[in-house]
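call fold(seq) -> tokens
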Amino acid sequence: MIIAVSSTDGKFNTEFSPRFGRCNFFIIMDTDSGEWESKPNPAADARGGAGPQAVQFLSDAGVKASITGRYGPNAFTTLKTAGIRAYIADAGTPEELLDRFKAGTLEEVNAATGREMH
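ret:
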């Protein structure tokens, strides 16, 4: 399965970003092979609609699950429409979050976890 973790600096071993739509990078990982790559978030500097734009980017990359700190209403609705599962975390590196995802210990959410920010 392909998953994405929001990231501030695009590194696998540093603290993830709690922001979704406006994070600087996404770490995109294959849970089967363990391979990963860092991709700049094209929505990070969007004037508006960053969450839905980020979802479109992830959907185009084949992502099936996302891990971040919070999802606004527009981002969450777009995730659900795209068939991407939403998970939240409060701390951890992408590497640690991948392990938690595989172990089934991350919380999957079924609604937005924050208010619209923009």
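The mean pLDDT is 95.
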